[in-house]
Amino acid sequence: MKRIITLLLAATLLIGAVSTASAVDVKVSGKWDFAFGFGNADFTRDGHESEDTGMKARQRFRTQINIIASESLQGVVMFEIGTIHWGQGGTVGQGSGGRLDADGVNIETKRAYLDWMIPETDIAVRMGIQALSLPMANGWCNPVFSADVAGVVINTKLDDMFGLTLWWARPFDTYLNDGADRSLDDEMDLLGLALPITGEGWKVTPWFMYAFIGASSGYLEYTGAFPADIPAFEPYENTSSHAWWLGTSLEVSMFDPLTFSVDAIYGKVSQQTWGRMGEWTGTSVPFWDDLGSADMGASGWFIAASLNYEMDWGTPGLFGWWSSGDTESGINGDMYGRLPVVGTDDGFAPTSFGFPGSANIGYDGVFSLTGIGTWGIGAQIANMSFIEKLDHTLRFAYYRGTNEHEVVERFGEPGHMSGESVYLTDKDNVYEFNFDHNYQVYENLTATVELAYIYMDLDDLANRPDYANNAWKAQLLFRYAF
To answer: What is the reported pLDDT for 96?
Structure first.
């Protein structure tokens, strides 16, 4: 009898588990992206053109699975295959599988998080690997931080006007479980809050973020922000330091169809000592070898604004930005004048070639992902449509550097911070033209043609690389979204 009762209890538990599983809804969504085209943005040249200007083809697949238990609880996972360049790639790792035979172990975990509501409250919690971006009103991503990262985000509405967002994220923990006795504070932790305030026809979001940057966390290696007198991309590391950022975003729609947006950001990273890491001594403290060391800190501003007027046939608009740059006296005092950044996946995108404003996996971001150390103005007519399912965007932008040219003449080009490819000074000028087109082939399939040209007029300064003066692209993109 005892055995029969035990079997009945086991069957009950199994039926309960099956019943619970069947009560969960599963929603699948995703995107297939393809890009075909020609282009050249090899700004740095060594006496020859080193970039292949032949036709390039690439693809990417992302799928998101929502496992929904209720309106208050769901798990989300997103996987990615790509970006795969046709004809390239080995058999293992990101982007592999593009060569003949097309075999590759290349499935990446893009996001994996849990959404849940604290019972009997309006407090929403998201924990896990997720997309996290600081507030930005202009439709562009925040240049300081907009990336996938592991963390916890808490959202709530205090009332109809005020909201509150709190977050903790950990982008780096370098020596966790590495098998060695390295009891360093080697983590990088981000703590932040945002207070969105919504009125009738306007919204303002002040925000603040603090970072503890542990010793040898890998943060400054990731950003490439090396001191001027230390060669970039060498195995150097830093002592621990702190950073903070303060910003606000403003959106005004009360004069619709005229809309206005502005963002302002200030950030500072305290000075830290840089040097080449020596061998570990058996204690858990690294030592600096005798190859030299340097101190480095950074602080800077970033301001961006846009003005748009939506009409039936399109949206004319103006946009601009300004970001502080390095000064000779600042670098001489081990303090850079560019806004410090954490990292960006998409980035500040006022244009679709020099900055990362292209559709899906288009060729873009060749100049900068952040816009730090530059200022610029531009005009565009977006979403022009005279034929059903077909629209166009015509754009022109002019930008130049805010870094003093004396920096390059005296020190050479400093290490580029995350997202930069060309270090612009106050004597350099850049002109960019975009002409982009979108056609809705089917409800779920969009075809895009992007044409762009950049002309770069750089001052002939000593101690800087030999840069090419132009870049261009012509490409055809497809996106199937389901």
So the answer is: 86
